[in-house]
């Protein structure tokens, strides 16, 4: 199984930029109505555990939160590789550097270009690790925050977002035929606030099979993945 975990990948943007690889056989919006807020770490932890983790993750220390493997769908697999996923294998150092630059930008101590450069550098690192891992484990999860991180400062700049979606579509294109089950999933979508972007309810999922999920909850993939694996190992 291959899971492409794309932070803030937004259904409307996927359609707008005509991302043919991201739009697999079945795709659509995820239902986040059970959540009060669209918090990245809460949504990825909830995706992994199949439970709403909102109350369990305090805002103040949220980025340090780690979910034990026994509580995740990863326990259904014999081998796994999970690259940079929040609440599981999040690269604290890389993201601390990103957050530092984001703060510096709002204090006029860093430019948006300096910020973007670090985001793209971290993206390329994850891309290399992800493409290298695919095919070597029963499940590979690759997490990419490009759409979220670039979007927060530049969602209103169409050319920049087009480049981001082109890149993510290319990553999907490289893996989409390499496994019998490929899931592309986002935690939440994104909406414009002037030139900036903020989280929205418009989450995205896409499958290389037709399962007619119809507005699935982000927590419902836990059971779906369990069923797929039970059949595969049977
Ligand atoms: Zn997010």
Write the topology of this structure.
Blueprint: E1 2-6, H1 11-16, E2 26-29, H2 40-49, E3 80-83, H3 92-106, H4 112-133, E4 139-144, H5 146-154, H6 158-175, E5 182-185, E6 189-193, E7 196-200, E8 204-207, H7 221-233
Parallel strand pairs: 1-4, 1-5, 3-4
Antiparallel strand pairs: 2-8, 5-8, 6-7
Helix pairs in contact: 3-4, 4-5, 5-6
This protein binds zinc ion (ZN).
Assigned CATH superfamily: Alkaline Phosphatase, subunit A
Which series of helices and strands comes N to C? EHEHEHHEHHEEEEH
Strand content bin: 15-25%
What is the fold named in CATH at topology level? Alkaline Phosphatase, subunit A
Distance between the termini: 15 Å
Per CATH, the architecture is 3-Layer(aba) Sandwich
Query: What are the low-pLDDT stretches, counting only 5+ consecutive residues below 50?
Result: none
CATH class category label: Alpha Beta
> How much helical structure, as a percent, in the residues?
25-40%
For the secondary structure, the number of strands is 8
Oligomer: single chain
Query: What is the average per-residue confidence, as pLDDT, rounded to a whole number?
Result: 96
Strand count, sense and barrel status of the largest sheet are:
6 strands, mixed
What general form does the structure show? Answer: globular
Number of domains: 1
What hetero molecules are in the model? zinc ion
- Cα-atom Rg, whole angstroms? 17 Å
Structural class: alpha/beta
Strand order of the largest sheet: 2-8-5-1-4-3
Number of helices: 7
